[in-house]
Amino acid sequence: MATDFEKALATLTGGGVEFIVIGGVAGTLHGSAFITQDLDVVYARNRGNIHRLAAALQPHEPYLRGAPEGLPFHWDERTIRNGLNFTLTTSFGDLDLLGEATGGGAYEDLLPHSCEVSGFGVRFRLLNLDKLIVLKRAAGRPKDLVVVAELQGILEKRKQPSGPQPETH
Amino acid sequence: MQADELHEAAEPFGAVPGPTAEAFDPVLEVFKRDIDFTLVERNLRLSTEQRAQQLVNATRFIGRFRPLVAESGR
Are residues A2 and B59, on separate chains, in Cβ contact within 8 Å? Predict the structure, then answer.
């Protein structure tokens, strides 16, 4: 199932969840030509946000991706508090919720390295390109090598004075 | 080292000190040779909202045609 990014982000922002978009979607928004199929976010682990996250996703039948059917998995505040990183399937597609990201730490650590952007019909926080590359390098996954190479190329192009500039709309 | 200094020096949990974004890596340089940066340059001329819309369109396309391809292969 292809992830409905508009619905996923509308669900999180509509529910007042504090989160930062990382991963492939962040790469796309920074100019990557690779297509991703899931949404990765780092969420704040304070009590209020865990409450909002539980409530926002509850109607969308979150379940552990790849787990056998029928496990006693209940999406609620307790589950979130007792866990940290969740790879989920939902009614709007695949969603990875990270309490902490390798190489970047928690939401509060990443917040200074993020900015607010518009996209998918909503406004949300996006990890900046430098930090996204640092995270992907820290993850050290062979499959990320080509993505990191592309993102580093984007960084180099952005820093060229005559590099491509976004159109204004 | 004093306790305060230790606290200041501590990395946040989950943060692994690693290379900076721009640190040179010969392996990455090899991968860069095969990347079509004309696509990237085109994307960089788009706004963030346009890049998001492009992803939505691509995802919808994949969602629509993947089942058909799977069915045709049966």
Answer: yes
Our CA-based measurement puts residue A51 at a distance from the nearest CA of chain B, in whole angstroms, of 23
Model-wide pTM > 0.90:
no
Helix/strand/coil for B37: helix
CA distance linking residue B53 with residue B34, whole number of Å: 26
- Verify whether the Cβ–Cβ distance B31 to A145 is below 8 Å: yes
Note the maximum CA span of chain A.
56
From first to last of the 169 residues of chain A, give the pLDDT tens digit: 789 999 999 999 999 999 999 999 999 999 999 999 899 999 999 999 999 999 999 999 999 999 998 898 999 999 999 999 999 999 999 999 999 999 999 999 999 999 999 999 999 999 999 999 999 999 888 888 999 999 999 999 988 877 666 544 4
Cα separation, A104 vs A75, whole angstroms: 26
CB contact (8 A) between residue A118 and residue B49: yes
Do the interacting molecules here have an ipTM over 0.90?
Answer: no
